[in-house]
Amino acid sequence: MTLQQLEYLVAVERTRHFGRAADECGVTQPTLSAMLQKLEQELGLRLFERSAAGVKPTASGEKMLEQARRTLREARRLKEMAAEETGGIGGTFRLGILPTIAPYLLPRFFPALCRQHPEIDLRVKEMKTADMKVALVRGELDAAIWVRTDAVEELPMRTLYFEQFFAYVAEGDRLYSHSSIRTTDLADEVLWLLDEGHCFRDQLVKFCHLKGAADSQRIYSLGSIETFMRMVEQGAGVTFLPELALSQLTSEQKQLVRPLAMPVPVREVVLSVAPDFVRRRMASLLETAVKESVPQEMLRFRNTHVRI
């Protein structure tokens, strides 16, 4: 039994597909399948069931997977402790990030960080909060950039910045003439909002008491902020943008942006690490890179703000 076989085992469970697991592990599918077959023979257990519906662990496989994840976590921890002792920051670092943060924050710091520290193999994956939390606890991620909510309070975190929400209003909408938008103004609006499970959506629905939130889901059950911006630009309704998105807008698009009335709702963007995380130097490097990349006024919570 080898750590490599355990990596393959966990990859198949995560992707529920032998081909995708092989791609993720950088090997051919026959190689991965042969290694797992040897593991099954050594253990005397069938680890996966294969059917038309896909691949899923057997009952015995679930038990083996729990131990495999623990073993891989401890093996990585041993290497990370050694690197921390010697002052190194190299190696693979797996970072999860919310889809409503990634397109606006990553371009600000990620390319420069990779150029300055080519010894770091920084792997980034966009994930929803619930999935990221599971991945952190399992040791599949080293850290996460997400939003402080009750769901993540028990994990270690460092505040990165505070980000305002802005309304994006169609030119023909009755709110277009408003200099700022109150929550009561949104009562009868066509609202373009993300699916449930996106904290960006959930926080706005709760803060603004958006009774029309379910209607937008019926119209458009998936979507992204960029998709909803195109809807608004074609003259339909209102959506919401995070503050960092504003710097990417054209002058014409900025004409559609309206601030929300005071107290201004903000989200607290934080960096969380896995429970047994030991790479403090890497976390500090990432924290510094992010903070230096955003406007300095976003680093503090002001008395005109309300955290949601």
Summed up, what is this model?
By secondary structure, this protein is of the alpha/beta class. It is 43% helix and 20% strand. Strands 3, 4, 5, 6, 7, 8, 9 and 10 form an eight-stranded mixed sheet that branches. Strands 1-2 form a two-stranded antiparallel sheet.
Number of helices: 11
Instruction: Look at the helices and sheets and give the structural class.
Output: alpha/beta
Q: Globular, elongated, flat, extended or rod-shaped: what is the shape?
A: globular
Count of domain modules: 3
CATH class category of the largest domain: Alpha Beta
Q: Please provide the ordered H/E string of secondary-structure elements.
A: HHHEEHEHEHEEHHHEHEEHE
The major β-sheet equals: 8 strands, mixed
The CATH superfamily title of the largest domain: Periplasmic binding protein-like II
Helicity, as a percent range: 40-55%
- Strand portion: 15-25%
The residue ranges in which pLDDT falls below 50 over 5 or more consecutive positions are none
Furnish the topology, listing elements before pairings.
Blueprint: H1 3-15, H2 18-25, H3 29-43, E1 48-51, E2 54-57, H4 59-85, E3 91-97, H5 102-116, E4 120-126, H6 129-138, E5 143-147, E6 157-169, H7 199-208, H8 213-219, H9 225-233, E7 238-242, H10 251-254, E8 257-259, E9 264-273, H11 280-293, E10 305-307
Parallel strand pairs: 3-4, 3-5, 9-10
Antiparallel strand pairs: 1-2, 5-9, 6-7, 6-8, 6-9
Helix pairs in contact: 1-2, 1-4, 2-3, 5-11
